Amino acid sequence: MKVSVVIPVYNCEQTIAAAVDSAFAQRFDGGFEVIVVNDGSTDGTRAALEKFGDRIRVIEQENAGVAAARNAGIREAAGEYIALLDGDDTWTDDKLAKTVVVLEQNPACVAVFSDAVQVDGAGNVVIPYLVPPHQAHSPTLEETLEQCWMIQPSTTVTRRATLLATGGFPEQFGPRAYGGEDTYAFLLLRERGEIRFVPDKLVRYRLSEFDENFAKRIRSGDKSPEQMFGGYLVFARLMRDRYGARGRPLGRLAIDTVGSGLVSLGLMAMHEGNRSLAIRYYRESFRYRPLDLKTYVRMAWAALPAGIAGKFIGLLTPRLQRSLSGPPFHVLYNRPS
Fold first, then answer.
1. Most distant CA atoms of the chain, gap in Å
2. pLDDT tier at 1 (50, 70, 90 boundaries)?
3. SS3 string of 204-266?
4. Is 3.40.50.450 the CATH number for 3-206?
5. CATH 3.90.550.10 residue ranges for the chain
6. Which of 44, 281, 293, 310 has the CB geometry, 3.0–4.6 Å to 266, for a possible disulfide?
7. pLDDT tens digit string along 217-269?
8. CA 105 to CA 97: how far, in whole Å?
9. pLDDT tens figures, 117-150
């Protein structure tokens, strides 16, 4: 077995079949298997997988998070190489053919990644690339420590032995804590050898629906900021503990992301008319972005009684209105229909 395709999945009943189909559509001469790790899905994911029968190997586990799901698949894999694919992404039919050959021809290379196009929930292309031009090359370790390199799991193929040697994906992030488990794993890989870049766009990378669920979470109150952004704080700690001063740039970026995420929650609360909740999120964001003057202005605006704010809102430009009253400026809110 040359390649093991490992697909972690949690509540992806609408997209998982397309992901698996894209794996089986590969025009690849080497043998490969498809392993799907169902991470405690509570929707119709299991039923969607049943149509593939024994063509795929399904591992069932209680919800433990995407890192634990990937690790479970990697441990059970028979292939020399691990091709990761998330349950809401798809590959082009030449993904394996154009990436595995790089590992075959370069013994010092431990992983390879490609470019991708970014699509929304409806499959529309929102951004025609994933890797920005200044990152369109094989990075050094120092480069990956200086900035967040756009290496997404679905774009990668990795030597299984190296993944096992580095411990795979860190499971400290827990079941629903997002924010850097894959970035940290690829840093550990880069310590072991080269990570080569293939410029072809071999993946349709689905933008997270996470931001679009802000309004629902605000209304229901079922998530605290710590639950929603705690993964970034775990990542910042891991960077500090392993890399010290060298890890500060990515650590600072992770902490800043928590702050900006809380501001986005505040803007969504304003958009929903919940001014007191907006103030709470703005106040909490200052723990991570204490010098963000715009957020102080937003909090002052949120503190105004709605009637008074309504008298002034018409005097502001549409962009300034949105900057104060939401929803957040984000590609997911401005995507084509």
1. 69
2. confident
3. EEECCCCHHHHHHHHHHCCCCHHHHHHHHHHHHHHHHHHHHHHHHHHHHHHHHHHHHHHHHHH
4. no
5. 3-206
6. 281
7. 555 555 566 667 888 999 999 999 999 999 999 999 999 999 998 998 899 88
8. 13
9. 999 888 899 999 999 999 999 999 999 999 999 9
